[in-house]
Amino acid sequence: MAKRFYITTAIAYPNGAPHIGHAYEAIATDAIARFMRLDGYDVFFLTGTDEHGQKMVQTAAREGLTARALADRNVALFQAMVKRMNCSNDDFIRTTEERHHASSKAIWERMAANGDIYLSKYAGWYSVRDEAFYAEKETTLGDDQVRRGPTGTPVEWVEEESWFFRLSAYQQKLLDLYERVPDFVLPRERLNEVASFVRGGLQDLSISRTTFDWGIPVPGDERHIMYVWVDALTNYITGVGFPDTESESFKKYWPADLHVIGKDIVRFHAVYWPAFLMSAGVAVPRRVFSHGFLFNRGEKMSKSVGNVIDPFALADAYGVDPLRYFFLREVPFGQDGNYSHEAIVARINADLANDLGNLAQRSLSMLAKAFKGVLPEPGDFTEADAAILAAADALVGKARDAMATQQIHRVLEAVWAVVAEANRYFAGEAPWALAKTDPARQGTVLYVTAEVIRQVAILAQPVMPTASAKLLDILAVPAEARDFARLGGHERIAPGSQLPAPAPVFPRWIEPAAE
Ligand code: ME8
What we know:
By secondary structure, this protein is of the alpha/beta class.
């Protein structure tokens, strides 16, 4: 069977426009999806929007809209954002779609058939902003007399008839899962937090609401709608064809290989989701990766604080590829990160314009001039040639190792370490000085440099698809020879190929003159 890989983002609440945290998650997930495709996997990449729930109802009311109208308006922005960030998602799911209603009803019925759902009364705290129930001991009363949950969002008292899920019955099964699959949640610290939460004891979970009707009706009891997280999590199986578990896509792609989510929603993905699936008799996903939060110069962004930075504006300002590179290189994947204009410009100028851009531009224009753009046949390799080629050949293995645990920044670190080495090689061999004295040797140095850039560009594709493609175009690498099977040294750039005129791929950022 072909290697397959099913990867998802969280599905965003469309109660506002997409912010940079959403863009970051989409970009990172896309880079992983593209990496796996280039590495020969049959990838399915799903993203979408989480449209039900009380938060949507409240925001819509404030704006004088129906929840449906609010969703429709903002979903268009999320779809545009994903496109603008150049994401290669295979599908975009909306939880308001009919296929998703059918799927959510089916998972509910399976959990009910397993004896895990019962009717009772809920009395407890609820955070609308988190769409989460919290135990009293998880809340605190602030000096402002506002009671808040563990994430700092206000909670309100809820008392209503509710269907419950027998989460308490899954405590040991979940602990066994964490034991059996120690990288079920990465980074590891996140799994430790989840495991200690579960060891602390699990209460049964309220999974329906009666005080508003924006949601999926509970099968057999239409006075209730499902708790939004029951339907939200279910999107991951809807996307591959559930409830048709015999469908080709479900059989091929489920269980998911990777759910990429932010650190604030680990509990839902690592506790509730596997418990629902176990109850429904559906396999649990293989891994949940929790990325960190992005802060604008150290300050938390949130819709309510109002300092949201528009991802479209950032893409317009810096370009999509440089923006993708910045986030994935600068922020160790799994940790929180900061961004600022200065930090983005520093990366653009140092890593992209200087290190990779200049090396490509200098070597390829020398090739254009000295060899009319025909890639020369290399002579015997010197020790220096062999060393830089070996470093480039080793990259694909390092990249795969790093990607096995989603260390995207380590892939980029390794690739740019070779770029730095290639610059030292180029400076040391001084091919410009060889034009008159030893043109054959000059040709070898330019050939070796082009081969290193080829491997670098192939590996940069997941993060900078457009710029890398341009770089591969000016190296005359055929479109069908750009996957990772072409790396590692058993295949080299073809001598004798005619290269097109080199054009700069990574422009420097020049600060606009002050008004
Ligand atoms: O949580 N930096 O939706 P959401 C990085 N609908 N990531 C961030 C972030 C930030 N500043 N702010 C939010 C939901 N995120 C649910 C998900 S999944 C079945 C349902 C991340 O719109 C956040 O952690 O609040 C989450 O992974 C995603 O953006 C969507 O957040």
